[in-house]
Amino acid sequence: MKTSDFYYDLPKELIAQDPLTDRSSSRLLVVHRDTGELEHKHFTDIIEYLNPGDCLVINDTKVIPARLIGERLHKQDGPYREPEGPGARIEVLLLKRLSDNRWESLVKPGKRCKTGDRVSFGNGKLLCEVKEVLPDGNRIVEFSFDGIFEEILDELGQMPLPPYITHELKDRNRYQTVYAKYEGSAAAPTAGLHFTQELLAEIAAKGIDIAHVTLHVGLGTFRPVKEENVLDHEMHTEWYQVREEDAEKMNRAKASGHRVICVGTTSCRTLESVGAEDGTMKPESGETSIFIYPGYRFKVMDALITNFHLPESTLIMLVSAFAGRELTLKAYEEAVRERYRFFSFGDACLFV
Length: 352
Hints:
It is globular and about 65 Å long. It has helices at residues 149-156, 197-205, 244-255, 265-274, 314-323, 325-337, and strands spanning 27-31, 38-42, 55-59, 61-63, 67-72, 89-97, 102-108, 118-121, 126-133, 139-145, 182-185, 209-215, 238-242, 260-263, 284-288, 303-307, 348-351. 18% of the residues lie in helices and 26% in strands. It contains 6 helices and 17 strands. A hairpin with a 4-residue loop joins strand 6 (89-97) and strand 7 (102-108). By secondary structure, it is of the alpha/beta class.
């Protein structure tokens, strides 16, 4: 299985740069796995494809303003107070919290930040020191500050938008789902961005259970697959949690012959990491590096709501595992022809 097997041609102008004014007004491409039929709908039509007794699974992670822009400080005796001057701009992207003040981070430019180097943010309001350079190039950094870290981060940090989004985000809440609750993600679970509280209430009123899981999305989700052979790709790890009441909702749907429908690949990866061979779920938390590609047998997920993903990415491989590579690429080619909006702020797909 080659990475190039998952390529499709995408005109640059179809990459959505801004969120729509109304979250739920995006388009929806419905893909029928059994017949190969494609339907062009709007996202609010999603409720037509959800049945009483089904269980809709959403990821309630919350994106933190994880992008910090600072200045590297001179190496000198005593406090590090004086920046190196022009050209010393350093970007630190927080990926995973390891302890109260230590984070695994992506630092750019990495060659300018070696072990022992320090970076100042907000004129010294927040300082970090590089403690370790990891084999993949990420850094372990330790912060020092006065006050509450989360409040300082909220003041100084920026939303970590994907690199293909070049427009400035005017309202940072538009890169959060309306049900975001538990902080820890470096990227949004973007399939959930289409839901409004009103639409969720309408879904619940129809008799559809809504279960929450938490998976803190890492930036590895955007990393391209560089290996020619798909099986040589090393997947990133992400922290997840499934709570007892939510596992029970999914088990109830399965036991009564109804479906478990995942909102996004992050919900899917959580369920497929935890689920038993018979499709039952249990309360659990931990780290997952599950890599789903064609040939995988799904244990829990019966339908998938997701956005359009990058060519040759692990996410389009996951979708191809669920719907088949040929049908997935057929759907994507149709979406390109019909001028759908792609990626994080783009339109959605429903695979049933």
